[in-house]
Write a structure and sequence with these properties.
The structure is a homodimer. The first copy, chain A, has 17 helices and 16 strands. By secondary structure, the first copy, chain A, is of the alpha/beta class. The A-B interface holds A 39-41, 43-48, 68-69, 73, 76-77, 83-85, 325-326, 328, 338, 342-344, 346-347, 350-351, 353-354, 356-358, 360-361 and B 39-41, 43-48, 68-69, 73, 76-77, 83-85, 325-326, 328, 338, 342-344, 346-347, 350-351, 353-354, 356-358, 360-361.
Chain lengths: 400, 400
């Protein structure tokens, strides 16, 4: 395998860069947004639609796939690529994030610093030891134990091209001391993940050329972020994820990225986990992030929101709004997606109000395509030295 | 316009025939099955998928489209073809069937002779006079009045290529006297529909070349079916629907068809409303039916059933069956649909159990394609003088 990441362009006015991640199922041009197929399907869409609309790589969630249908069944089917009929690159998270975030009542609440409604349920649903996380299934309440070794074993069975180390997700309100202890444990778990990955005979796996990304923690504390970035970067991973609590709001998240990236090596790709708002993509790229994933385009679609090129609306259009009732235009003018090439706002407004499944399909497809096209524009701008112009055109304000 | 229907082949051993219905949006090769897009969308599927899988014509429901989004809005959007992006032929029913069947608690109960659970609700939800049907909306309880003229006005606004006359649907248990009176009223309404259609200036309509089909009633009574067939056939319609109560079971439905068809002219296409089981399609064709429609392929898909070529299973496979858990084969071997070309039974079993929307899409697409391909086989067999062989191969028993 060639080096996992090669840089092809840099922006002169920011930390932004373009590059290529090389995987067993083909190259991924960065910066990249990856649609999330939580349970082996990007909700309501086919793999061919994703490919036709520019998806290069998708993400699967280890936690969900482990619980149903199970990594062993997926491995017997030839791995997730074959099972779901997606022949491009796949990344799986470690399962750690999901184990905790589903218990916390949605990571959005945590990241945004809102106190969980039932914090006492945490101890009932999940328990952390030095060795493992013990949790109950969201499906049937059954008891499960995840260790770093188990996470890698599960990810080996799924067969994604990029795996991620198993980590603990401390609550945002944990404070410096707990965050530091949790970070140290995540570092020890990172070493166990690496060992588990390299000990496994590759010939038994559905995908023999899996990459393994480390994950940087440290919460909102600059000293911890620096320590974690330097530690994880020294361990020999194929790339780096920025995980853990990212702060209470968007400015704090941007600060966390800015305090982490300078301590990462240039020659490893950097993935900011679970981020996909339009402004966050630009701010992440400007601070040196290469890879993003988020459920937002399909989740927004299921809830009747279309992404549009309008910063004044925060890039969101509520399709059930009565103003669309007789609007014969597309969701977004000049959008090349199937939805916008084919259907009017009036039709989609009607379908959504009538609770027709096709509304969800058409909105999900548009929203995914919208972010994929946005990132293609960003890559093109970086290649042509115009990133600041692209940023200003999208966000309606200058870069920096 | 050329004659609306031309016969291209006849079977020597039955009343089956092949032909072409000519419409403003192109020809329809018969015998044909038309997928039902109740509310301007064949549930979960795009018009391009339908076309790619062989759909020639689809059906829209006047009752639903009238209530939401309304025929006037559809007309302002350029008609249903443009609104839903389907440029092939469309047929709309008259609304009568829906007004009654939704009140009766599902027409399947009625056709099968099961007594409605709450027959007293009928008078509350719908009332019939010589002039009109007064009914309450299933959406919001609002009061509406449908007359034959109103039904045609609504169907003019929708702009389908084939319209159907407004009729009263008497309950199956109505008996001879009520069925005869109701049939006479339906005949008077047929004359009013014809007049309303011909009086309207075509230049104001989204589709200037709409055909109008009459509808034959008479319940299960041979004398009434003959009288209705002869009366409706003499009125100058572009084609004939067989409607009304079709009996308590499949044999009685076949009898109703057999007692009606001989009294219809050869040169008009015949549509058996709301029928789409595999055996019913063959038995209908054998008795001289040219056109069929049914919600079954998409409804079965939403409920986890795949159509398969197996009379012993009544052509149905329950995809949530545990036997499919590790089945790497397609839903139906040799099926050319996207679902069967791409995905395994194991994946669809998993998706359906996980309640993923993609399961509904993939099953709906397969089931629709399955019936479209079946009818293409029937047409080919008729053209080649092999209908009896085709019947025997599908139903596992000889024709006749």
């Amino acid at each position: 395998m060639p080096p996992a990441f090669q840089i092809t362009a840099r922006d002169s006015a920011s930390c932004a860069r373009a590059g290529v991640v090389t995987t067993a199922h083909g190259p991924v041009m960065t910066p990249v947004f990856m649609p999330v197929g939580t349970r082996g399907t990007v909700k309501s869409l086919t793999p061919h639609e994703l490919r036709d609309h520019g998806a290069q790589i998708i993400l699967g969630n280890t936690y969900h796939l482990y619980l149903q249908p199970g990594h062993e069944l997926i491995a017997r089917r030839g791995g997730l690529h074959h099972f779901m009929a997606w022949d491009g690159p796949i990344l799986t998270d470690s399962g750690g994030f999901q184990v905790f975030s589903l218990v916390y009542g949605g990571i959005a609440d945590e990241i945004k610093g809102r106190r969980p409604q039932h914090a006492e349920r945490l101890t009932d649903m999940v328990r952390v030891t030095e060795d493992a996380v013990i949790f109950k299934s969201y499906l049937d309440g059954s008891r499960h134990v995840f260790t770093p070794e188990r996470s890698i074993q599960v990810q080996h069975g799924i067969g994604a091209d990029i795996m991620v180390c198993f980590d603990e997700l401390p609550p945002f309100r944990a404070g410096y001391d707990y965050t530091a202890q949790s970070m140290e444990r995540t570092h020890r778990w990172a070493a166990r993940c690496l060992a588990a990955h390299h000990e496994r005979p590759r010939a038994t796996l559905p995908n023999r050329d899996q990459l393994l990304f480390g994950i940087v923690h440290g919460g909102v504390f600059p000293a911890l972020r620096q320590a974690s970035a330097e530690h994880i970067s020294s361990m020999g991973f194929d790339g780096i994820c920025i995980g853990g609590s990212l702060g209470a709001d968007k400015p704090q998240m941007y600060d966390v990225v800015a305090m982490t990236v300078p301590h990462l090596p240039e020659n490893l790709a950097r993935h900011l986990l679970g981020v996909g708002d339009v402004d966050d993509l630009f701010e992440g790229v400007a601070r040196g992030i290469d890879m993003f994933d988020c459920v937002s385009p399909t989740r927004l679609g299921r809830h009747g929101t279309a992404l549009v090129r309008d910063p004044a609306r925060r890039w969101k259009l509520n399709v059930s709004n009565a103003a669309l009732r007789e609007d014969d235009g597309p969701l977004q003018s000049d959008c090349p997606c199937y939805t916008c090439r084919t259907f009017s706002r009036a039709y989609i407004h009607y379908l959504y109000r009538a609770k027709e499944l096709l509304a969800i399909r058409l909105l999900s497809l548009h929203n995914v395509a919208f972010l994929l096209n946005l990132m293609a524009e960003v890559r093109q701008a970086l290649a042509e030295g115009r990133f600041a112009d692209c940023y200003a055109a999208w966000l309606g304000k200058p870069l920096g």
